[in-house]
Amino acid sequence: MRIAIDVSTVLNHGQDIGAGRYIINLLKGLFEIDKKNTYILTGRYITDEHLPAIYNLKSNYPDSKIKFKLCGTTQRKLNLWNRLRLPIELSGFNADLLHCPDFLVPPTLNKNIILTIHDLSFIRFPQFNFPWFIKKYTSEVKRNAKRAKKIIADSQSTKDDIVNFFNISPDKVNVVHLAADTFFRKLPGKEKRKGVLKKYNIDKKYILSVGTIEPRKNFTALIKAFNAAKKRSADFNYKLVIAGRTGWKSEATYRERETSPYRDDILFTGKVSDEDLLQIYNQAELFVFPSVFEGFGLPVLEAMSCGLPVISSDCSSLKEVIGDAGILAPPDDIEQIQEHILNIAENKNLKESLGEKSLIQARKFTWVKTAKKTLDVYK
């Protein structure tokens, strides 16, 4: 088969966002297990910053059949191209199937479309998005879902939403779980670098959370729970570190920090490199993820891969990812979240036990498994 995969998300936004990580790691998994089929990586880009992430795949997997059909452009030309709906086949594109791994389908004549839908948060929680975004994506993703031959969902939770909101047959939707990048792992003590923490002004034990600063991640609730833990226990001498880039509607989260009596102990790192993030994961005491909704929840799995005890919200896909390896709580129950934080912070045996469970649970998810299941969908 000639399998085309649209890598536009990586080309334009990099691989430090969820969809970018998914595409890069899926490609690596496919190239590791499949030397027979030809893979055509296609996409349009307006910056060449992330081109090496795609081009380096060919040299890293010399035995795989990899071709490129990439096109540099400008935002104006891209907008015009999307408006005119000129099919990519006009530029010589030719494939047996086209996998669109991030909701959207480029203009194409190909009838064999595989569509990955990561989540339907813009429908489930419209208050967390802008009206224009909801209108555009609801109609476009629904149209793409109807058009696709097969749909890949990151979780059973996302599959249920696709079936219910778009009236899609369950037989058309395949659940294919993701995995953490193998780069995220538990480090031996000699590989932990305190200098990385100093770089981000982390000078004491800390609770960690990771994600784009946006309402759906529910960091305001986390800050409130942290405040409550500080107020309740004088021995709780921890910082709260939130690692991730600034997203939309982030003002309330930053305001919550500014009005906290413990604001000096609440740190936002901003965007960090994977090398630094690995260190930040490994030197944290506890990972807390109070997200209101996730299509999968890669940061949780990354934290578990590093051996961190995890407290997470009990909604959407997160129960599938965490299983019985972590502690689950309602995302709006501030009291319960802070109780769990204090309980783990004050109980060394519990912390170590949860850390071991995290490692065992994380090993159940691999990108080779993801690639094999995806290849089955292609076939």
Describe the structure.
- The chain has 379 residues and is α/β, with parallel strands linked by helices.
- The protein folds into two domains: 191 residues, Rossmann fold; 174 residues, Glycogen Phosphorylase B (Rossmann fold).
- The protein has 16 helices and 13 strands.
- Strands 3-2-1-4-5-6-7 form a seven-stranded parallel beta sheet, sandwiched between helices. A six-stranded parallel beta sheet has the order 10-9-8-11-12-13, sandwiched between helices.
- The radius of gyration is 21 Å and the shape is globular.
- It starts with a strand and ends with a helix.
User: How would you state the average pLDDT, rounded?
Assistant: 93
H/E topology pattern: EHHEHEHEEHHEHEHEHEHEHEHEHEHHH
| Unreliably modeled segments | none
Which class do the helix and strand fractions yield?
alpha/beta
Q: Please identify which CATH superfamily of the largest domain we are dealing with.
A: Glycogen Phosphorylase B
Give me the count of strands.
13
What fraction, in percent, of the residue positions are helical?
40-55%
Tell me the strand order in the biggest sheet.
3-2-1-4-5-6-7
CATH class value of the largest domain: Alpha Beta
Tell me the CATH architecture of the largest domain: 3-Layer(aba) Sandwich
Secondary structure blueprint with pairings:
Layout: E1 2-6, H1 8-13, H2 18-33, E2 38-45, H3 51-60, E3 65-72, H4 75-84, E4 97-100, E5 113-117, H5 121-124, H6 131-147, E6 150-153, H7 156-166, E7 173-175, H8 194-199, E8 206-210, H9 219-232, E9 239-243, H10 251-258, E10 266-270, H11 274-282, E11 286-289, H12 298-305, E12 310-313, H13 318-322, E13 327-329, H14 334-346, H15 348-362, H16 367-378
Parallel strand pairs: 1-2, 1-4, 2-3, 4-5, 5-6, 6-7, 8-9, 8-11, 9-10, 11-12, 12-13
Helix pairs in contact: 2-16, 9-10, 9-14, 12-15
